[in-house]
Each structure stands twice: as structure tokens, then as C-alpha cells.
Specification:
Shape: elongated
CATH topology of the largest domain: Rossmann fold
Distance between the termini: 29 Å
Number of helices: 8
Largest sheet: 5 strands, parallel
CATH superfamily of the largest domain: Response regulator
CATH architecture of the largest domain: 3-Layer(aba) Sandwich
Strand content: 25-35%
CATH class of the largest domain: Alpha Beta
């Protein structure tokens, strides 16, 4: 899951990035609406966390700009402006949810899960392929009902492949799902994550195959 965090308070941003990373999320951090709009046009995000008080204006002004470009990514506004009128204004402007600071991380995670369950967010709650089940809501993989323990980036690779089962997934798409734009990516790092994921699924008896498409990417399908 790739999240854009639009927040100009460095301490708050660092705390959120660290906390969300521990829950297997890739977080791109920007500090202005201009940078947020540019990033949204370059990368595919599962959700945007948006502060209102930004250096280049009220963050709510970003919402109609995104919608005019046909970007339906869910947006949760995170702000110190928590009065009823502010919340109503945020929702009427196009936010999917509105959370006043300070807030508990558990509530933010729950609200993220909620917006991703809506039609404009997550396309399916579960993927079933062979003996593998991927629960998009809780972001967990099971084989024959048993949880498969995965490292953070193995989980991110599987999530990206699961969303596109039966289709070749470009390396660039997988890299976008696994790394933020601040991460340094070594040339064979993605292949290492895929290899480890493939081994774990095989050992668990998932009956799925992840095929490398040379020079293009990877394809996950049911084992023949």
C-alpha cells in the first residue's frame, strides 16, 4: 500500500512515516500542495493523508484540482482544525474522511481501511488463487487457512501482484508499490524480494507461481 503524506510539520511527518512503515505501508512525504499534485500525477497512490495548513495555502484547495484530473484516490484530511464547520467544509470539498489532531494511530489505520473498502478504493476484499488467500482489508496472506509470515516488502510485492492477478506487472509498477521516492533502490533488490516471496509461498503449498517476464516484470497465476 502506497500512501502520500502531505504535511509540513517535520516532527509530525517523521512520526507518521515511521508508524505507517511499521504497518507495511510505503509513504511518500511532501510538504506543499504543488508537490502533492505533481506526485499524484506521477505515481499511483492508495490514499492521501492531507494537512490543511500548508505553506502554499489551505490543503482543501488540492481536492478539486485532483478530482478535475480524474484522480479518485481516497483522501483523509488530518488537521488541527477540528470544529464542526471545518469538518463539514472538508467533507463538502471532496475529502473522504476528516480526522482532527491529535489522533490515535489506531484510529487513523481504521479510517484508512474504511476508505479503501469503498468502491473508489479497493476493488476486492479478498483474492483467492490456488490455496492462497490474500485479505486486502487486513493485508495478510493465508495458505489453506494458515497465516503466511511475510516481511514488509515481501507483503508489498504480493499485494501489488494480487491486485493484478493473471496480468504481467511491470517492474516499475512493483517498484512504485514497494519503495517510496526517498528510498535508494539497488539493481537486484526487487528480484530478491520476489525470490523470497516465491519460496515462502511454495513452502506453504500455496499452489501459485510467480513467473519472471524477462525485461518486463512478473506474472502471478495458479500453478499448472
Amino acid at each position: 500500500m502506497r500512501i502520500m503524506l502531505v504535511e509540513d510539520e517535520r516532527e509530525m511527518a517523521n512520526a507518521l512515516r515511521s508508524a505507517l512503515a511499521k504497518h507495511d505501508m510505503v509513504v511518500d512525504h511532501v510538504t506543499t500542495m504543488g508537490d502533492a499534485e505533481a506526485a499524484a500525477g506521477s505515481f499511483q497512490y492508495d490514499a492521501i493523508l492531507l494537512d490543511r495548513q500548508l505553506p502554499d495555502g489551505d490543503g482543501l484547495a488540492l481536492l478539486p484540482r485532483l478530482r478535475r484530473r480524474g484522480l479518485g484516490v481516497p483522501v483523509i484530511v488530518l488537521t488541527a482544525k477540528g470544529d464542526l464547520a471545518d469538518r463539514v467544509s472538508g467533507l463538502d470539498t471532496g475529502a473522504d474522511d476528516y480526522l482532527a489532531k491529535p489522533f490515535a494511530l489506531e484510529e487513523l489505520l481504521a479510517r484508512l481501511r474504511a476508505v479503501l473498502r469503498r468502491p473508489a478504493g479497493m476493488a476486492a476484499e479478498m483474492l483467492r488463487l490456488g490455496k492462497l488467500t490474500f485479505d486486502f482489508g487486513n493485508r495478510q496472506a493465508f495458505v489453506a487457512g494458515e497465516l503466511v509470515p511475510l516481511r514488509r516488502r515481501e507483503l508489498l510485492v504480493l499485494e501489488a501482484l494480487a491486485r493484478r492477478k493473471g496480468r504481467t506487472v511491470l517492474r516499475t509498477v512493483l517498484e512504485d508499490a514497494v519503495y517510496s521516492f526517498d528510498d535508494e533502490i539497488q539493481s537486484n533488490a526487487l528480484d530478491t524480494h520476489v525470490s523470497r516471496l516465491r519460496k515462502k509461498l511454495s513452502e506453504a503449498g500455496a499452489e501459485v507461481e510467480i513467473h519472471p517476464i524477462r525485461g518486463v516484470g512478473y506474472l502471478m497465476k495458479r500453478a499448472s
